[in-house]
Structure formats: C-alpha cells, structure tokens
C-alpha cells in the first residue's frame, strides 16, 4: 500500500517535470513554422509586385518598339520611288474642272501655235476687220455674262431715262444657278447705276431689273436683244435672259467680235465696263463694287472695253477691245479653264502681237485629234 502510494507520487512528479519541457518544445517547434508562413507570404507579395512592375516596363518597352517600328515603316514607305505626301490643298486643287459645252463638242482637241487654253478664240483688227487668229470662232457656245454687253446696248438704244429709280424685287432672284447678290430685295438704284454695276461687276439682279423695266417687260426686252443680234449679223447668237445665267444664251466668238465693235461706239459702255471700282447706295448701306477683270487696273494695258463671264457650261469667258502696239484689237476668248486662264491667254496674244507679224496667223486653225 505504501509502495503503491509512493509509485503514484513519483509518477505525478515526473509528469509535472516533463509537462513544461514538452510545452517549451512544442512552442519551439510551432514558432518557426509560424514565422516561415509569414515570410512566404511576404515573398509571394514581393514577387507579385515585381512581376507587375516588370509587366508594366515590358508594356512600355513594347509601345516604344511599336512606335519605332511604325516610324521606320513610314520612313521606308516615303523613300519608295513615286511616293509623295499630298496636302489637303493639293488634293482639292487637283480636282478637274467640270466639262464645258466646248469640251463635250470636242473643241478641247484643237491645237493652236500660242497654246491658248480657251477652246474658242478670235483676234481681229478693229479698223480693218482682218482676222489675226481664229480658233473655233464659228462654233456657238454658252457665253455667260458676256450677255450683259447686249443688255447694255439694248438699254442705251431704247433712250430710257437713266436717272429713273429702279427697284429690285423677288423676280430678280436667280432661280437658275442660285447665285448670291449683294442687292437685297427692295434695293433702289438709278438705271445708270444698275447698268454700271451690271457691266463692271456682273451684278445679275441689276441686269435683270434693267430688263424688267424695259417697255413690255422681260419678254419684250429679250425679243429686242435677239432683234439687235440679227441686225448686227450675229447669226449664231440667241438670248433667253438679260443676265447670261442660263446656258441657253449662246454665241460664237465671231459674233461676239461684232458685238464688241458695236458696243464700243457707246462711251458709257466703254467707261462703265473699264471702271476699276464704284460705290452705290441702294438702301441704308453703301456697297463698294470692283471690276471683275483685273487687267483694267494694270497700267501696262490700254483697254477700251471689256466684259467677263462664267458659268460651268461656258467656262471662263472674256471679250476685250485693247490698243496693242498702236493697233486697236478685238479679242474674244470663250470656254477657258481656270480662274486666270483667260487673262493668261490675253497676255500670250499681246506678246505675240508685239513681237511677230500677225498676218502669218490670219487663217483658220484646223483641229488636230489628240
């Protein structure tokens, strides 16, 4: 009994002594495991951050490489023969002009020694009627605002009061080409001022108002225009309105030369058509007009009469009476391309007249098929 009690006591004492050591051992083995887990977690996080940074750097690098590649590719393309950068303005200027009536008739295939861009031309000595240059001069073509020369001729020969005040109405609005006019509905000007800006600046509403205020109105005025054309021997000419906005107004270069000679007899037409600028007051505001032909302001030119014209069917047109090298010359250019081509044609003819014998070209130029 005493032995068993002593055994129990010894057993308890041994367990008490062993337990703390076991706890310490357990703690020692668990603590390193816990620390290792945190370390792994931090390492994983660090790797992720590193991977993210590396990925970002790689992306930026790829972008730079792509940009370089694109730049290199563009440079290589630009070095290829035939490649050319074209600006916006160059593309718009390269758009071809619409085909005119002369183009559709094949007149653009005609070649002349002066290489004029106008499809129909007549250069004539005003005093002798000698034809110095003839290019498709007998073909009837739309004449655009050259029409206004006949409009002015009919107005003046009707002996109407030039001081009478005419009013612009809705009847004068352009319904053919939808062109703009600075003369508002209700504008009032004298017949003289209407004629002035119609001849000098091709003011369409002014020209139409002149026709409407003719005795019998527009129908009678147009009939008078055609009657005057017949009287002048303009057999290829027809008028349908006083402005020239309709392509139904047609004439030949040969006929228009006759019109220029007839219109030149009127000092008012000579003065109005060659005036460089003019101001009118049709209402509350003063309107300043400029001549549609820049040559009238050029001191190198001696122009006695002129008129310009343009609609898409007619191309650029110009008629002039000018004194060149002491000789009075009538010049007609129809169906030209480009804003300044008709003026360039006039300059070429002038240089030719000043530097050669015009009689050499006093014969029709035969079309050569291109």
UniProtKB/TrEMBL annotation:
Residue ranges with Polar residues bias: 72-93
Annotated signal peptide: 1-25
Single Gene Ontology MF annotation: hydrolase activity
Organism field: Keguizhuia sedimenti
Source taxonomy: Bacteria, Pseudomonadati, Pseudomonadota, Betaproteobacteria, Burkholderiales
Disordered: region residues: 27-104
Family, as annotated: Belongs to the peptidase S11 family.
Chain ranges of the Peptidase S11 D-alanyl-D-alanine carboxypeptidase A N-terminal domain: 112-337
Domain of life: Bacteria
E.C. number: 3.4.21.-
This protein's name: D-alanyl-D-alanine endopeptidase
